[in-house]
User: What shape does this take?
Amino acid sequence: MRRLMVSGVAMLFSVVAFAGTAVASPVKPPRCDHHFYGLGNGEGIAVLCDYGPSDRFRVIAYCEAGLSSWNEYGTIAYTGFESSDAQCRGLLATPHVAGFRIDWL
Assistant: This one.
């Protein structure tokens, strides 16, 4: 019985002692700023990333106009130097940017 208690305490100590090392792996999240701008026949988005998992990125805009939706791929840009622009343009209805994501290249 005593061996069982000692092994249980040892297992509990090892779980508590080593749990912080597995969780505390510091990963720097990407830092990106965005702004929306108006066009004559739609809306656009520009994203500037200071750093990230790669040195190149592009923005992918989710465009919506009425009942239709589609993706627009932005220009390829370098982190810290350029912004990636994607534009949602339409002929019959004025589309808007419903959302976006960053594609790291």
The longest helix spans residues 2-23. The longest strand covers residues 42-51. The two ends are 59 Å apart (CA to CA).
